[in-house]
Design brief:
The chain contains seven helices and three strands. With 153 residues, it is mainly alpha-helical. Helix 1 crosses helix 3 and helix 2 crosses helix 3.
């Protein structure tokens, strides 16, 4: 994915000027939550795209906003076939996942909930962590049972 991330980011900025966090959220949305690049991946790419004169940046409300340049548009044109192949590959790989997006979103909320509660409580003792691991193992077992039952039907 990293090899194609430059083109994905450039395409998103072509849609409209964006700041780094907006780029991350737009990618997450495009991949329906199945892929979310880290800030450590996105920001260096934005800097690289700016160094190559494919984007320019300006400050607005304390945020660095990136806009595509003519060279950036040309780069997308030059890589049009590569970009089309990548889109087709991703559509093939993730296309069916759209129907699971709500479930994935709920799992993401659950992950944030658990870590939020851990931070709030400061609970990091071995007994609590062990109990949480057992709860997760039980959840996995329940999921497997539901899917086994579904196969029987």
């Amino acid at each position: 994915m990293r090899g194609h991330l430059n083109l994905i980011i450039l395409e998103l900025i072509k849609e409209r000027p964006r700041h780094g966090y907006d780029v991350i959220k737009a990618i997450e949305e495009k991949f329906q939550g199945f892929y979310s690049p880290s800030a450590g991946s996105v920001y260096p790419i934005l800097q690289e795209l700016e160094d190559q004169d494919f984007v320019t940046s300006s400050q607005a409300s304390g945020k660095k906003i990136y806009s595509i340049t003519k060279d950036g548009e040309q780069e997308l044109k030059v890589n049009k076939d590569k970009f089309s192949d990548m889109r087709e590959h991703l559509r093939h790989r993730f296309g069916d996942m759209g129907r699971y997006s709500e479930l994935m979103r709920e799992m993401g909320y659950m992950t944030h909930f658990v870590f939020g509660k851990l931070r709030e409580s400061g609970a990091s003792d071995t007994k609590t962590i062990k109990r949480l691991r057992i709860a997760i193992a039980n959840f996995k077992s329940e999921v497997e049972e539901i899917l086994r039952e579904q196969k029987k039907d």
